[in-house]
Design goal:
Strands 29, 30, 32, 33, 35, 36, 37 and 39 form an eight-stranded antiparallel sheet that branches. The chain is about 5% helix and about 50% strand. It is mainly beta. It has four helices and 49 strands.
């Protein structure tokens, strides 16, 4: 309201020094708004309108540039002041001189709009920090409980810079902007142009996302088929399905994953589960979508855990799609069996990852290209010969972690690592790593293994399953487990039998915050005889201490690596803004308005402002309107369809200060329309 009063006062000074002239001017303003209100909006837009006009970017902060001084920012300590002599942006910046470790300067806690949850959010600001020391201050996105994303600041060396980080908008429903001191007395910092919200610093490129998962289990769940060519399994109502993401309940209880509809894209389908054929039967398995079959896998002999995958292209949105496991008995008289029992070991799991055909979102340099990997070696016999009913960690007092990419640290059995690559207690088969952002990560473990019998046992069977888990950094309590499980179920026939194989388990895991995370390889082990060993990692080369006996691991950002990102605007992005511009004009504005009927011949209807209409080409629907009161300079004109029927094309082909030419015709039928167009022009 204050701003409006200022504008009205300036108008009065410029054009209307006395009351009579001011009254005349107000009348003209009313006429302008009556004529142009349907087509022009001069009012402050609503939040939804701003979101559309500004694109996907949406800033939750109400005073991002401190032009409203300190409104909307709170400090837990230190000194806060306004900087007006040399602001970074606009007329005002803010300075903060923290004098204690852990002090914060922050915004209120905002409710994350439903439309932003799951999208890409960002936290950014512009700052000048010449005297700063790297890492003394952190920029943080906080959900009221934990840090969602954070980045350490660097000195600016006289240059105003924009820094920040992108992250998945939190599902917790809350978000705040925060600056935090990590030392007792960091240097004073000048800041401005803060951003907290969606869409900042990203554009559309290509990425993959986990689109949905389907997990099958249940006591007695077993699909049995004997078709001589690839066919669906019969329904088994003992099987219970759990879905996540976009996946929905299957129409029938058969092994697969179903979606109500699939938008265009490439879909990578992963399968993991137990499959078997009889000892004299050969079976093949594929993943099918009802049109094509992919991901061929053959199974021989006793029941085993298998993994296969396939990629399907969807060019246009298709409804009700199921990616289903099909079987084919290729030889022998037995059955092709896929089973999902009542434990984690026996689940059948489908995971679908989507790659958009069009663009997805790009990344910033601060969060891109994350990859860490290494290997864990040591004595040959890390584990052997003890049954356990659940999943437990694998540990030894003589393990060594080797970093190959990044800086993974050794995970310890019960306490934090003492020197980075070793522990004060036993080392675990696992690692700790600093993750740059929250989000999805691809994680893999690969280890060689060996099965053997000892003490003269005639035959013995061993079953060992592997999965990886997230734990606290100093304990083995499971926070979350991989859905993927893999392992072996083998029989050694005599004391001299030794069976070796590589075992690999890979999966995507979601972390809801950045920072240090610990991932460990856990196992479940069952044996039929007490004199059986299953040893891993196993030295396949026979040379104890060689790299062949190591457990290899890797972790990378799943959304960034498939394919590599394209960077956009990583230095600075400026918000779209609505500005009020001050200016002046002389004389009251002139308005010309008319309507045109375009039946057999375009005709201008009479109106109170005075004009004449000249038909230039009735066949094409062209008409020229000559103003009764010519404008002093080129006016602004607008032509709009009148009425509600038809699909008329009302356009202004040319404009001068004395006349305007209009073309109107129905482009779908070629006919003229009696409802015609309305035309308005405004100028001085």
């Amino acid at each position: 309201m204050t701003r409006l009063k200022q504008i009205m006062f300036k108008m009065k000074q410029i054009c209307c020094p006395n009351k009579k002239e001011m009254t005349t001017f107000i009348v003209w303003l009313q006429i302008i708004f009556m004529v142009f209100a349907p087509n022009l909006a001069y009012s402050v837009p609503k939040e939804q309108d701003r979101a559309m006009l500004e694109g996907t970017e949406r800033n939750l902060l109400s005073n991002p540039g401190f032009e409203a001084r300190r409104a909307g920012v709170t400090a837990s300590g230190g000194t806060v002041a306004l900087e007006t002599a040399s602001p970074l942006d606009g007329k005002i910046s803010l300075t903060w001189d923290s004098d204690g470790i852990g002090q914060t300067l922050e915004s209120p806690l905002f409710v994350v709009p439903a439309g932003m949850v799951g999208a890409t959010c960002g936290v950014f600001f512009k700052y000048l920090w010449d005297a700063g020391t790297a890492d003394d201050l952190m920029l943080i996105a906080h959900d009221g409980t934990v840090n969602i994303a954070e980045i350490n600041l660097n000195p600016t060396s006289g240059i105003r810079i924009v820094d920040g980080i992108n992250f998945p908008c939190p599902t917790s429903g809350s978000l705040k902007w925060r600056l935090e001191s990590t030392v007792a007395n960091p240097a004073i910092i000048t800041l401005d142009t803060r951003f907290l919200g969606s869409g900042r610093n990203t554009q559309q490129t290509s990425q993959s996302t986990i689109y949905g998962t389907s997990s099958w289990e249940g006591s007695g769940c077993q699909w049995v088929g004997s078709a001589a060519s690839f066919a669906n399994y019969p329904v088994d109502n003992d099987c219970v399905e759990t879905t996540t993401g976009k996946a929905v309940a299957s129409a029938t209880n058969v092994p697969g994953i179903r979606f109500n509809d699939l938008p265009p894209g490439k879909y990578h389908v992963f399968f993991s589960g137990q499959m078997a054929a009889g000892t004299t039967t050969t079976c093949a398995f594929v993943i099918g979508d009802g049109t094509e079959n992919k991901g061929l896998l053959r199974s021989l002999g006793d029941e085993q855990h298998y993994n296969t995958d396939a990629t399907f292209d969807v060019a246009a949105t298709i409804p009700d799609v199921t990616y289903e496991l099909l079987h084919d008995r290729q030889a022998g008289a037995g059955n092709c069996v896929t089973s999902a029992g009542g434990t984690d070991d026996e689940r059948v799991v489908f995971t679908v990852e989507r790659f958009p055909l069009t663009n997805a979102e790009s990344l910033t340099l601060e969060t891109s290209g994350f990859l860490a990997k290494g290997n864990i070696g040591g004595s040959e016999n890390i584990f052997s010969g003890v049954s356990n009913s659940g999943y437990t960690g694998i540990e030894d007092n003589d393990l060594t972690l080797v970093q190959t990419v990044g800086s993974p640290l050794q995970a310890c059995s019960g306490v934090e690592e003492s020197s980075g690559l070793s522990c004060s207690g036993n080392e675990s088969v696992g690692f700790s790593e600093e993750l740059p952002t929250a989000g999805w990560y691809d994680i893999c473990f690969t280890t060689p293994g060996r099965l053997s019998t000892v003490n003269g046992a005639a035959t013995a069977t061993v079953s060992t399953m592997l999965r990886f888990v997230e734990t606290p950094n100093n304990a083995q309590t499971i926070i979350q487990s991989s859905k993927a499980v893999t392992g072996v179920n083998e029989t050694a026939s005599n004391a001299s039998t030794i069976y070796g194989r590589d075992i690999t388990v890979c999966d995507d895991m979601f972390f809801d915050s950045s920072g240090k995370k610990t991932i460990r390889l856990f196992h479940s082990f069952q044996i039929s005889e007490i004199n059986v060993n299953f040893v891993y990692p196993y030295d396949r080369s026979g040379s104890n201490g060689s790299l062949d006996q190591a457990v290899y691991f890797s972790i990378k950002k799943s959304r960034e690596q498939k394919p590599a990102p394209i960077f956009n605007n990583f230095l600075q992005t400026i918000n779209s803004k609505f500005e009020i511009l001050d200016g002046s004009f002389s004389g009251p504005p002139k308005i010309q308005a008319a309507s045109i009927s375009t039946g057999a011949t375009p005709i201008f209807n009479a109106n109170p402002f005075g004009h004449s209409g000249v038909v230039s080409d009735a066949t094409l629907g062209n008409a020229t309107w000559t103003f009764g009161v010519p404008f002093a300079s080129l006016p602004v004109c607008n032509a709009q369809q009148a009425g509600s029927s038809g699909n008329r094309n009302c356009t202004i082909s040319s404009t001068t200060n004395t006349q305007v030419s209009i073309r109107t015709r129905d482009p779908s039928t070629g006919a003229l329309d009696a409802q015609g167009c309305s035309v308005q022009c405004m100028g001085l």
